[in-house]
Amino acid sequence: MEIKKDRCLKKTKRGLYVKGETLSLSRSKVALFLECPRSFYLDLIVGLRRPGIPAFTLNLAVDQLLKTELDHYREIQQTHPLAAERQLNLVPFSHPDLDSWRDSLHKGIAYKDDRYNFLLRGGIDDVWIDRDTNELVVVDYKATSKKEIVGLYNVYKKQMEFYQWLFRKNGYKVKDQCYFIYCNGLKQGHFNDSLKFDTNLIEYVGNTEWIEPTIQQIYDLLNQDIVPEVNMECPHCEFSYYNIESDSMLSQYDGVA
Q1: How many angstroms separate the CA atoms of 89 and 84, rounded?
Q2: 247 and 197 share a domain?
Q3: pTM for this structure?
Q4: What are the pLDDT digits (tens) for 92-121?
């Protein structure tokens, strides 16, 4: 079956890597590199973006409700019940830049790495502070609906570690322990205009040692002239970017071959 190229690829000049100019690298772009260097290269060098996916509006609604709820405990400076039942002396952290840190599309918590001229950034859901140690604790919200929750996806762990690293680069003391507020939608009973959740606080101990070497690898990749080989585990390489023999197709985009 012939695949129509214009249905598979999204061409853009925004956000391309240009030597000598500062490159904004979001947490999601770093995740893309870890998933598929070829897709990352075509995105940042050629401007061939993966097709977008629809927004999960119910998840966004849960996120907003959680932020409103946590902001209440932030205002009164009390521990949220999920943390209190674990006897954790944590309260939501108040800071004038909190809204910027939460703005994943335009701002986020950011750090400029002058070695590579990268502006690394990521939009958090929340951050708490440990009253005993005066360390920050990164918190992320997750909403799903499954029969059972079995562990955490690796991409979730990397996401939290990246946020921890960014806060440390901004001079904050950050605990290795971080937390997911995991909301699992229940499918039992009647709807009655109400969706019930089993909500849990899941602890994860982050390790940020992978980040510095990864940034170096990203820089090296962006400064090479060869398109990385097809990643056979990446469906986008197969269906969006065809195969390794199709690299000559790129010659019609910005002179890249």
Answers
A1: 7
A2: no
A3: 0.86
A4: 999 999 999 999 888 999 999 999 999 999
